[in-house]
Amino acid sequence: MSYIKEKFKAKADELGTEVKDLLKNHGTKKVDDVTVAQVYQGMRGITGLVTETSLLDANEGIRFRGYSIPELREHLPKAPGGAEPLPEGLFYLMLIGELPTEADVQTLSSVLGRRSHVPNHVFDAIEALPISTHPMTMFTVAVMALQTESVFAKAYADGMNKKDYWSYMYEDTLNLIARLPRVAAYIYRRKYKNGQHIQPDGMLDWAANFAHMLGYSDEGFKELMRLYMVIHADHEGGNVSAHTTHLVGSALSDAYLSFAAGMNGLAGPLHGLANQEVIKWILSMREELGGGVPTKEQIAAYVKKTLSEGKVVPGYGHAVLRKTDPRFTAQMEFAKKHLPEDELVRIVWAVYDTVPTILQDLGKVKNPWPNVDAHSGALLLHYGLVEYEFYTVLFGVSRALGVLASLCWDRALNLSLERPKSVTSEWMKLFAEGK
Ligand code: NMX
Ligand code: MLT
After folding, report:
1. Would you say the CB of residue 165 lies under 6 angstroms from ligand 1?
2. Is the CB of residue 12 below 6 angstroms from any atom belonging to ligand 1?
3. Cα–Cα separations (whole angstroms), residue 50 to 25, 46, 247, 418
4. Cα separation of 283 and 280, whole Å?
5. Is 134 an annotated catalytic residue?
6. What's the complex ipTM?
7. Domains of the chain (ranges, CATH numbers)
8. Which ligand is nearest to the CA of 370?
């Protein structure tokens, strides 16, 4: 067994014992009360899940095992000559609960490199889809095709003992994370670059190799990919992609089945697809207004038009956050350092100066501030990745790090099948009337 796997097992055994004690001594303690409104309105604010990898504070934003994004950018190991954290390090942190050393990250990078082979039938499955297929559909089809490689599913079919679930889930997790950049890059090159594929470079770290296979050799783009893969990786357990992965996994579906399910949620416009919607919205605004950085008045008029058409302003608002998303701020800092004069970036910043007050004035939007998706497209476009329908796939590759680390914990802690109770509106009416 590798030392990282052994370390995970030791950590999981330790927490497993603590959770058993917690359940024995405090199992009947109430965590929350639930209102009728919460049941109808997306279960907002109900504490009903346990996720070890990260925790969201409504005002501060996400912390991964206690570390904020600025702290991660400071403390996680970097590539030689680089300034952004390596996503392998974040995966280690989420899985083990401790900051990795440079050596841990190097080990993980080479383990992922060794496991990255993608069987041909996965490429055949992608090729079987019309070229016009949305990249997120190609992505989930490819992940489903990869499911033939699940060691968890095979071990289960062979009668695996429940004590070993964690071990096979760990193997599936590493294999899947290792393969995703190759799969995603294949989709990109097939759809947008006439099928001229680029072979992996085993000397590069996970994110830089992904950038390389997409066809971007610029050091700035590699740095952006490292940052992008870190900040999109996890957002505690209740978001649609994490929750879906966890839910499907609770039926003992393997990592491929569970992750593909989560990705179908990420593909929705109120979740991960918002990153493509933001750039589409900004580009249409620029075109409609005749180019250049629009004035505050012009942006305000465009926002009001969007709202009057019964649409949301993409990239703004959040189900939990109540302040500017620190993932937006991290990207803003990256842009200030690397591309401060970029026109689209300046439009993103002008939108940031204008939109919050308008949304606030509506009186119903709980969070008028930008989320992670408000900034990412402008950065990607700057480096030449103009095909915005692909952006959610990038989000998905990153999200794998968090939701799959969580899935390892789910199986290690032997979490139960998720099956909350539902009621009908008839039941709710009677309940409300006290009957
Ligand atoms: N533009 C216009 N209206 C909005 C926005 C927005 N950006 N955000 C919220 N509202 C509306 C919302 O539609 C609802 O209206 P109604 O009562 O008429 O149905 C009202 O404000 C209250 O919604 P909230 O309670 O503030 O938000 P909720 O928790 O329901 O939804 C989002 C959160 C993220 C779905 C919502 O803010 C939104 O649709 N934002 C735009 C899409 C987006 O950027 N999604 C990406 C989220 C991050 N991610 O990557 O997943
Ligand atoms: C996420 O990263 O998953 C989004 O911000 C959505 C969420 O947290 O609900």
Report:
1. no
2. no
3. 18, 12, 12, 12
4. 5
5. no
6. 0.99
7. 274-382 (1.10.230.10)
8. 1
